[in-house]
């Protein structure tokens, strides 16, 4: 049952734009020595890892198409984060995940 619950929380299919963003954020995180910047990267990664709205996805795809990376990417993602209130969206999403009923096995029978 724990396997099924973990599967439900981690099986969101990410768009190509999201995969690009997450890959670039990992590169930035590895290259950064500033703790504040690393904290910001962690926050942005958490925000863009889950389900996102179509408007956010359009902007992410545009960033990918233009090949934005490095510091300009970080600034663009911070702007998107603020502009689309992803802070509130992440909180609602985590509440939604935890309030879903978890299936429980009451009784089972095996045919021999």
Span between N and C termini?
23 Å
List the total number of helices. 6
Name the poorly predicted regions. 93-98
Shape: elongated
Q: How many β-strand runs?
A: 0
Fraction of residues in β-strands:
under 5%
Element pattern in H and E: HHHHHH
> What about the largest sheet?
none
Number of domains: 1
The overall pLDDT, averaged over residues, is 81
Query: What's the gyration radius in Å?
Result: 18 Å
Helix content: over 70%
SS content category: mainly alpha
Description of the molecule:
- The protein is mainly α.
- The chain has one domain.
- It is built from 6 helices and no strands.
- The longest helix is centred in the N-terminal third of the chain and has 16 residues.
- The protein is elongated, with a radius of gyration of 18 Å.
- About 5% of the residues have low confidence.
Element layout with pairings:
Layout lengths: L1 H9 L5 H16 L3 H15 L4 H13 L4 H13 L2 H14 L13
Helix pairs in contact: 2-3, 2-4, 3-5, 4-5
Quick structural overview:
It contains six helices and no strands. The chain is mainly alpha-helical.
Describe this protein with a few key phrases.
single chain; 112 residues; mainly alpha; elongated
